[in-house]
Specification:
seven-stranded mixed β-sheet; 264 residues; 3 helices; 7% helix; mainly beta; four-stranded antiparallel β-sheet
Length: 264
């Protein structure tokens, strides 16, 4: 592979041109109501009282924003599965992403929400060895996606991402509609209606990064403020609401966000 995570500018130029599609992010009460039974971090966005809990469509505060680059590490035809960890070490991450129509904020069912990200040492499956490590490349870890429910919800289990030179901690995300599931557990066809990235609270990332296995990553970490892709736009630019799953970072986090997509 010629693309490597060691180049600070690898993700400033997408391998495919980004279209004029736009994405809406629903913030505030919407995201808060998605994290159930978890203990909030003091640094995270405040959650709404239980009396304020309403369906995602009604609670959505839709903010129009640009899509973000796909980056150089996308691989077609990844597995449709709710757990993408494949035994990778790292702190648990329970993602709840809700997809809504950008015109109506009505939840979008049967949309395939696909994610991919690097491991604790900054490696992407399919590109292992490009960040100075020599483990075998199995091609599929920390990649995959699920179909949204009738409520527009995609729930995916992964691990908190690591980092590599020139980029802050992030997860790539695509949303596809009208896909066909295949017999080998993957998908084909459909329409790609959103390409973006998910970002993480800087204070929480610093806590995670100080502990094993993340502390073994010796690459200087790029912060949110230093990143060339994240624009300090908060949830409107993909910043997740993170909720602690326990008293220690090693217990993991729930990450929530509502994405509104343009289907036309």
């Amino acid at each position: 592979m010629t693309n490597t995570p060691t180049n600070d500018t690898t993700e400033t130029q997408a391998p495919h041109p980004i279209g004029r599609r736009t994405v809406l992010i629903a913030t505030g009460a919407t995201a808060a109501t998605l994290a159930v039974g978890a203990v909030s971090e003091a640094q995270d966005a405040p959650t709404s009282p239980a009396s304020d809990a309403v369906p995602a469509a009604a609670a959505a505060v839709c903010t129009l924003t640009k899509e973000m680059t796909e980056g150089p590490y996308y691989l077609d035809g990844q597995l449709v599965r709710a757990d993408v960890t494949e035994g990778k070490t790292g702190f648990p991450l329970k993602l709840t992403l809700t997809v809504v129509d950008d015109d109506t904020c009505v939840p979008l069912s049967n949309a395939l929400v696909e994610i991919w990200h690097c491991d604790a040492l900054g490696e992407y499956s399919g590109f292992v060895g490009n960040n100075g490590h020599n483990e075998p490349d199995d091609g599929t870890f920390l990649r995959g996606g699920v179909l949204t429910t009738s409520s527009g919800v995609a729930s995916i289990t992964s691990v908190y991402p690591g980092w590599y030179r020139g980029r802050c901690v992030h997860i790539h995300v695509k949303v596809h509609t009208n896909v066909t599931l295949t017999s080998d557990g993957s998908f084909t066809g459909g329409q790609e209606v959103h390409t973006g990235q998910l970002f993480f609270n800087e204070t929480i990332t610093a806590r995670v990064g100080a502990l094993s296995p993340y502390s073994a990553n010796t690459v200087t970490r790029t912060t949110l403020a230093q990143d060339s892709i994240y624009d300090e736009g908060g949830a409107a630019s993909g910043l997740l609401t993170l909720t602690a799953l326990g008293s220690s970072p090693s217990a993991g986090y729930a990450g929530t966000l509502t994405l509104g997509v343009e289907q036309s």
